[in-house]
């Protein structure tokens, strides 16, 4: 995964495209324990050349033979999935699948991801201590993981709904990173400091700030043991009237859709 990330970042930089990691690999680089399975990259096309994600994938494949494209699980989808493979990793009779790694390419606006200038990105040393990789700021990583938990609870596909348990655990791991949490405490929403990252409209639109607050309150309802960590950051942790019931109705409707479609759902996910 790390090799795939380094290759993708290097290729994008050669193409003149800035980028930054988010998702599980970024969480790992910040100190989380879970080993990531793929790479999530936010790219920043220049204003004069607004490339789509599909165009960016094509440019990567054309620039580095270690990358290739696959069809998505649903053949009705028109996009292609970018993968990385070590060219020498082969088994007798076929490709060694363990040597392949999926690389998700996104652009600002998708999944509420912001358009950040290069100076606002952080660089983190890899395990080799030779190559550094750009990562999104920790507050964005944390609330992106929270968004994943919230979205997957009402997902229409079983494999996405299944991810919610891991999302919840990822959020917990990030909240337990003492160094990053200590840096954020002074930037809580209760502070009048100009360093208040949670109300930074460049990172989080006003609408998203409201949604983030609701997600935090619901997360604390289901995982009350983490309420103290969110409270340290200045977030309201008690659900407001009707929020839990509304969210439960959404989850129930999502489960009913899965049952009706014949795909089923595992109660352990809920």
Helix amount? 40-55%
Strand content: 5-15%
The N- to C-terminal Cα distance equals 29 Å
Question: Which term fits the overall shape?
Answer: globular
The strand order across the widest sheet is 1-2-7-4-3
Tally of individual helices: 10
Tell me the structural class.
alpha+beta
Describe this structure in words.
The chain has 270 residues and is α+β, with helices and mostly antiparallel strands. It has helices spanning 2-14, 23-30, 53-63, 138-153, 158-161, 164-175, 178-185, 206-222, 227-232, 243-261, and strands spanning 18-22, 39-44, 67-70, 81-85, 90-91, 94-95, 100-106, 122-125, 132-135. The strands form three sheets. It has a five-stranded mixed sheet, with helices on both faces. The chain has a two-stranded antiparallel ribbon with strand order 5-6. A two-stranded antiparallel ribbon has the order 8-9. Helix 2 (23-30) packs across helix 4 and helix 4 (138-153) runs antiparallel to helix 6 (164-175). The chain is globular, with a radius of gyration of 20 Å. The protein starts with a helix and ends in a 9-residue tail after the last helix. The relative contact order is 0.11.
């Amino acid at each position: 995964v790390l090799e795939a990330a380094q290759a993708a970042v290097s290729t994008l930089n050669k193409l003149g495209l800035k980028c930054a990691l988010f998702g599980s690999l970024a969480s790992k680089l910040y100190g989380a324990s879970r080993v990531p399975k793929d790479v999530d990259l936010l790219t920043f096309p220049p204003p004069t050349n607004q490339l789509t994600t599909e165009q960016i994938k094509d440019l990567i494949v054309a620039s580095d033979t270690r990358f290739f494209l696959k069809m998505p699980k649903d053949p009705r989808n028109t996009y292609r999935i970018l993968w990385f493979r070590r060219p020498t990793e082969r088994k007798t009779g076929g490709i060694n699948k363990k040597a392949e790694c999926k690389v998700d390419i996104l652009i600002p606006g998708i999944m509420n991801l912001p358009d950040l200038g290069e100076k606002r990105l952080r660089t983190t040393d890899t395990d080799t201590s030779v190559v550094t990789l750009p990562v999104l700021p920790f507050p964005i990583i944390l609330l992106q993981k929270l968004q994943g938990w919230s979205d997957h609870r009402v997902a229409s596909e079983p494999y996405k709904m299944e991810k919610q348990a891991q999302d919840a655990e990822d959020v917990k791991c990030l909240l337990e990173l003492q160094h990053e949490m200590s840096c954020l405490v002074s930037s809580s929403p209760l502070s009048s400091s100009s360093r208040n990252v949670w109300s930074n409209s460049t990172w989080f639109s006003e609408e998203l700030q409201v949604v983030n607050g609701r997600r935090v309150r619901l997360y604390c309802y289901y995982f009350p043991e983490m309420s103290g960590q969110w409270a340290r950051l200045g977030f309201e942790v008690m659900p407001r009237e009707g929020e839990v019931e509304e969210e439960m109705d959404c989850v129930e409707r999502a489960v009913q859709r899965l049952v009706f479609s014949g795909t089923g759902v595992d109660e352990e996910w809920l």
